[in-house]
Amino acid sequence: MISFMPLPKTALLSSELSLSYDELNGRIGDKKKWLDDRGWKNCRVAIDLPDSYTLLEWTAANWQHRNHVLLLDQRMKDDEKQARLRLFSPDLILSAGPGKSRPVVSFFQAEVPFFLSAGDGEDINRVAIDSKNTGDEQPPSNCWQALTLFSSGSTGTPKSITRTYQSLLDEWSAYAGEEGSPSENSRVLCLVPLSHALGLMSAAMHTLLQGGTVVFPDFINGEEIVSSIERYEASHVYGVAFHYKLMEARMEEFVIQSGYVGSGKTLFLISSGGPLPADLAGRYRERIGLPIGQQYGMSEIGYISVDFTDSHPPSLGKIAQHIRYEWSEEQPQLAIRLDTSPYTGEQDNWIPDPDGDGTGGILYTQDLVHIDEHGYLTVTGRSNDQISIGGLKVTLQEIEAALREHPLIREAAVVHYEHPVLERVIEAFIVWDKPAVTEPLDGILHWLRNYLSDYKMPKKLHVIEQLPLSAAGKLLRGELLKELSHDTHR
Fold first, then answer.
1. For 136-149, what is each residue's pLDDT tens digit?
2. Whole-prediction pTM value?
3. Of 71, 104, 138, at which residue does a domain stop?
4. For the chain, which terminal residue's Cβ has fewer other Cβ atoms within 10 angstroms, N or C?
């Protein structure tokens, strides 16, 4: 089971609290003993806690007992959490306890109050010998279900995604072999939530298993991120494109004033969760002198490829050795072969193997990719972002890119939906580059006709303050469709 080496060094670091490996192991051991004394083994445990050491400790303690952990994203509404709990049917629930909450702008808390409750409403301190998922029998090997996450819903209905413990071990082992990955001498600044696979698996758990130090900032703004890099002497930064936009101006000042780039120190900047704008990557490379590496993956299987040094832009590195994939120029959607389905229930992008026992199959990533002769992977689009209007193909990203060319537009997102008369309709959301812009939308559409064919033109434009993004920085098109269905912007 997962365990961290008893090293005489810092494991977790923030402005609130520094924990050595001995202290971290002791805190995990206390939680494991609580579970052990009450017989909570081989059971389902829901963890509904803010980003914190507390969340990491309870996750590790439960995995040491072969417990199946469900992580609930803190941005979920109460009814969304309850729906997932009904689906998951946990034996034990860990949730944030009562107490004075910190300001909304706070990102990370070292310790959070918590309380435990039994999923069936019974006494939490009883010996759990009657629980349907407990007992002394051990599942074979490491194939027991260890972690359930939920997709962001960026491409449709959120999915319930489950990973086996063996798949986690395979991912950590492969990740350790990637050039530039965190090691025992690394200090990893984690900007992404621990309820997301990138933050939990790549930034936190992998680093701790290697004997490195995981660092957390107090707030997510450009000044605090760059100050944390300097203050904690970070070797790696895990974030999404949004974070690198936030810190760009301050980062340029920092490298000039500190001479960081010319000092010979290595700083790996890693972006994941969605496309990294080429112009942003170019400015970091040319003006700041620090390339942004990219990591590509899915909650269903963890990381698929990573390039820590941005050595072959715009590629995302080579596909990891533990990934069994299928791809061809004729069928450019990347497909991953798995021994078991990662989903609870049926999903369109999971095709069971008809020649097997019904458990294995193919996971279609819905990403269109190109793999060159040297094995480097580049994502070229999404299979579900290409639509047909009157028999003609339209790519949503093409429309978004055209809108972003307008000097007054900073961000753009396009959605589509079925219409009873018009069949398929495109509408677009834009974010002004400056808040005080009052440019007529008809003028924007007139300008756009110089770049797009008539059948690609959005039916309407809507102005919003910011695009809805997931914790990993992915555009949530589903949220924009909800805005249209509620007539918020009509």
1. 455 557 789 999 98
2. 0.81
3. 138
4. C
